[in-house]
Specification:
22% of the residues lie in helices and 0% in strands. The radius of gyration is 16 Å and the shape is elongated. It contains 1 helix and no strands. The protein has a domain of 25 residues. By secondary structure, the protein is mostly helical.
């Protein structure tokens, strides 16, 4: 990935992984923040395409 950027990418020494959202957080995002899937470009946050 770093070679494909075309520029120097600064990577911190203490890089960590972000935890997955909880079921409650996903529900808030789906139902209150983005009920019409504008921010997710029509892809539900569980990885399935919106129908």
């Amino acid at each position: 990935m770093l070679a494909a950027t075309g520029f120097e990418l600064l990577v911190p020494d203490d890089l960590s992984t972000t935890e997955l959202p909880t079921a409650e957080e996903l529900a808030i995002l789906r139902e209150e923040v983005d009920p019409h899937l504008h921010a997710t470009a029509g892809v539900r946050l569980d990885g399935c395409e919106a129908g």
